[in-house]
């Protein structure tokens, strides 16, 4: 072999990122991979020179799970002393230095608001020092995260426009791990959206823990999420806009109206209610009632009759009675959800609800099953009702079988098409012919 090999030193190092939790973490992981110049991403930890766990604190015993995951890398680190191990995300924020105390092999700990400092932290870790940053600075971390030049992207992308939350629901860690609510300025969001579209993106999902509280600085002052959406609407080549996750109390009139008038805004809304009992909603510090939520859904449906509503529910919140649970089921019956995520309440240390008495575990399990059965029925009925309709589908990738393509309808249902001539990134009209457990099938019109 006479080919000249590059100097070993200039070969890119290898980065393995494991992402837990929400879409915002997926987005953050992409940005972190771009920020770590000189690294190529790999799919397994054994090849890596650096392992980053991008952690989530929303589920139960999150920190314990991270510690046991880290334990599994011990052997790798013993074989490869140069391997650097980092912890990012909400567990990093919540645990801080404690992580390095409990797992001394961890070289780097970085909280979600400090990702723009990752290159410095990496250099520090490389030099053999421990690198820790869990500050919550007020600068826009994404602005400081350097993007690599123009790599082609898939047809769909997330774009974080807002972070943190000021709502302090009694069960939730987000206000503590992600900090106060902050919106990115309009021009930065638009620049990033244009860049994504140039790189092949057709659908953008705007992300924020409390995305409809968006109030980014723009021309003539602060702009609402609806105003931002109308600006994105003008970008040629961007075909679809979505946003998640919203709080009922921030569903402003202009946003509801946009659902009726903005063609690019997809007919799908994730609007968590958590419970249908006013007593529990109050104890959760949700600052809305079941009735106000139902009236809000009515107004949204008046603007966009076919909109698919999705939600989040917590069952077995402290002090939840059979009657409270029945109230939640009644609310679900009235709303008719196209999709929903439901969780058994579990304690997050440091949150107000953590001090309260738990509902019996078996009772909570039974309630969860009952609630999930109801939602599955609603979900399935709505999905089945798509059969016979013609829907626009954005094709995202080949299916499992030869010639098959998979995409999403505006309602976010997965749609399979056999013998498909539509290409990845194209939107085509599909007649839906059948509905399976998790997806629809159809034929190009
Ligand atoms: N226990 C159970 N579910 C929770 N969620 C948030 N905190 C908790 C908790 N302590 C759920 C809420 C939220 C979703 C992202 O996770 O339903 O909307
Ligand atoms: Fe957590 Fe959402 Fe409540 Fe904010 S609005 S505290 S993110 S559940």
Sum this structure up briefly.
This protein is 33% helix and 23% strand. With 445 residues, the protein is α/β, with parallel strands linked by helices. The strands form six sheets. A six-stranded parallel beta sheet has the order 2-1-3-4-5-6.
Task: Kindly describe this structure.
The protein is of the alpha/beta class and 445 residues long. It folds into three domains: 13-133, Methylthiotransferase, N-terminal domain (Rossmann fold); 141-384, tm_1862 like domain (pyruvate-formate lyase- activating enzyme, Alpha-Beta Horseshoe), CATH 3.80.30.20; 390-444, OB fold (Dihydrolipoamide Acetyltransferase, E2P), CATH 2.40.50. 33% of the residues lie in helices and 23% in strands. The chain has helices at 23-35, 62-71, 74-79, 89-95, 98-102, 118-126, 141-144, 174-177, 186-198, 225-233, 253-261, 278-283, 290-303, 322-335, 361-384, and strands at 13-19, 39-41, 50-55, 84-88, 108-110, 131-133, 156-160, 162-163, 182-183, 203-207, 215-218, 221-224, 240-244, 268-270, 308-315, 339-344, 390-398, 405-409, 414-417, 427-435, 440-444. α1 links the parallel β1 (13-19) and β2. α10 runs parallel beside α11 (253-261) and α14 (322-335) packs parallel to α15 (361-384). Residues 1-8 have low confidence and may be disordered. Residues 165, 167-169, 172, 174-175, 209-210, 247 line the site of iron/sulfur cluster. 5'-deoxyadenosine binds at residues 58, 171-172, 272, 274, 312, 314, 343, 345-346, 348.
């Amino acid at each position: 072999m006479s080919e000249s090999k590059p100097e070993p030193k200039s070969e890119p190092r290898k980065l393995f990122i494991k992402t837990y939790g929400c879409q915002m973490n997926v987005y953050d992981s992409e940005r972190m991979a771009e920020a770590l110049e000189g690294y190529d991403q790999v799919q397994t930890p054994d090849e890596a020179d650096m392992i980053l766990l991008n952690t989530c604190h929303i589920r139960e015993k999150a920190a314990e799970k991270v510690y046991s995951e880290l334990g599994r890398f011990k052997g790798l680190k013993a074989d490869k002393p140069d391997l650097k191990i980092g912890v990012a995300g909400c567990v990093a924020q919540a645990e801080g230095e404690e992580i390095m105390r409990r797992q001394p092999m961890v070289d780097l700990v970085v909280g979600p608001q400090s990702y723009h400092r990752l290159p410095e932290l990496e250099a520090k870790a490389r030099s053999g020092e421990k690198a820790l940053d869990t500050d919550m600075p007020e600068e826009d971390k994404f602005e400081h995260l350097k993007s690599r030049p123009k790599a082609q992207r898939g047809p769909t992308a997330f774009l974080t426009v807002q972070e943190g939350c000021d709502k302090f629901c009694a069960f939730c860690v987000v206000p503590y791990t992600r900090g106060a609510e902050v919106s990115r300025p309009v021009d930065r969001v638009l620049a990033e959206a244009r860049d994504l579209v140039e790189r092949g993106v057709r659908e953008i999902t705007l992300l924020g823990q409390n995305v409809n509280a968006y109030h980014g600085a723009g021309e003539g002052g602060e702009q609402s999420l609806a105003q931002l959406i109308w600006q994105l609407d003008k970008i040629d080549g961007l075909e679809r806009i979505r946003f998640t996750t919203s709080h009922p109390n921030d569903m402003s009139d202009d946003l509801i109206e946009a659902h009726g008038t903005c063609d690019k805004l997809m007919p799908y809304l994730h609007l968590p209610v958590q419970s249908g009992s006013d007593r529990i909603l109050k104890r959760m510090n949700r600052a809305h009632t079941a009735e106000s939520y139902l009236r809000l859904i009515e107004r949204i449906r008046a603007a966009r009759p076919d909109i698919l509503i999705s939600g989040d529910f917590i069952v077995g919140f402290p002090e939840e009675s059979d009657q409270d649970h029945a109230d939640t089921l009644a609310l679900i019956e009235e709303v008719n959800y196209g999709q929903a995520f439901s969780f058994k309440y579990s304690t997050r240390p440091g949150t107000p609800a953590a001090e309260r008495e738990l509902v019996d575990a078996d009772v909570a399990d039974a309630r969860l099953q009952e609630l999930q059965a109801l939602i599955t029925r609603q979900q399935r009925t709505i999905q089945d009702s798509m059969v016979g309709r013609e829907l626009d589908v954005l094709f995202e990738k080949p299916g499992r079988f030869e010639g098959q393509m998979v995409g999403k309808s505006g309602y976010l249902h997965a749609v399979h098409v056999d013998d498909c001539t539509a290409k990845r990134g194209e939107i085509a009209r599909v007649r839906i012919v059948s509905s399976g457990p998790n997806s629809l099938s159809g034929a190009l019109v």
